[in-house]
Amino acid sequence: MLYTTTLENTVYKLIGTKLKKLRLEKDLTQDDIAQIIGSSKASIANYEKGDQAIYISDLYKIALHFNIDILELLPRIDDIKNQFPEFAIPAASELTANEKASLDKFVKKIKTEFEKEE
Amino acid sequence: MSIRSRAEKTAEQLINKVKTNDLSAVVNYLKINVTKEKFANKISGVFYKIDEKFFIGVNEDHPEQRQRFTIAHEIGHYCLHEASFFHYDHEKKEGELFFRAEDRISLDEVEANHFAAALLMPRKLIEEDFLKNQSVSFLASKYKVSEDAMRYRLINLGLM
């Protein structure tokens, strides 16, 4: 099986990675975080692995404790889009004149070389 | 089949046929003519077909790792979207997905990116190497890809 990823487990996994990184930066143990949140070490381990859906209130407890913005604990939307391209809404874009010119030049060059070979 | 698994499978089949994922070997095998070009900055690469000849132009001003990703991406178009004629790859800004103007094509671009990742960072090799060394920067330099590309690949393979 190549891909078994779901949006849900990807989101919790990415949050878990951020939590773990923050904890290690602060040189703390899972027990320490459990005390801050008021939960068990096992829960923190599961949060960090993304195996357990973290309560939003727990995220706030962590953000408040470390005096950081809650957004720092959440995955960036681009990271989610990368995992789930179907959510990546394509931006409509037109080529600028400059861009079009450089492509036309490329095509012209190939055609010229191609005709020479004939 | 999801576009991701189709891209993954196609890249694996190609590597098996060529017996290596070396980019120049793959290009030679497919008889694609790759040239470095002076493109407008936002154009990463072009895949062009005339009669039965295939050309890839890559922006020579972009960093080497990005040029490799672009070439692999264009090979993805060759392998996956041979019916489409012209691929302008145009990047909005650093770090964002490739996209094209029409909705129909944008999924092709995403699929070509997955193909490129699978070609440059084959699943089996990455899984083996990851057991020995988990450093993203080490793996990125070994596979000559950007650290972002390697990080996304590791996440996609469920290793991170």
Main features:
heterodimer; A: 118 residues; mainly alpha; 434 Repressor (Amino-terminal Domain); 6 helices; B: 160 residues; alpha+beta; Arc Repressor Mutant, subunit A; 2 domains; five-stranded mixed beta sheet; 7 helices
What does this structure look like?
The complex is a heterodimer of chains A (118) and B (160). Chain A is mainly α. Chain A contains six helices and no strands. Chain A has helices at residues 7-25, 30-37, 41-49, 56-66, 77-83, 97-117. By secondary structure, chain B is an alpha+beta fold. Chain B has two domains: 3-120, Arc Repressor Mutant, subunit A; 122-160. Chain B has seven helices and five strands; from the N terminus they run ααβββαββαααα. Chain B has helices spanning 3-18, 23-29, 64-80, 103-120, 123-132, 136-142, 147-156; strands spanning 32-37, 43-50, 53-59, 86-91, 98-99. Chain B has a five-stranded mixed sheet. The model of chain B is unreliable at 83-88 and 90-105 (pLDDT under 50). At the A-B interface, helix 5 and helix 6 of A face helix 1, strand 2, strand 3, helix 4 and helix 7 of B.
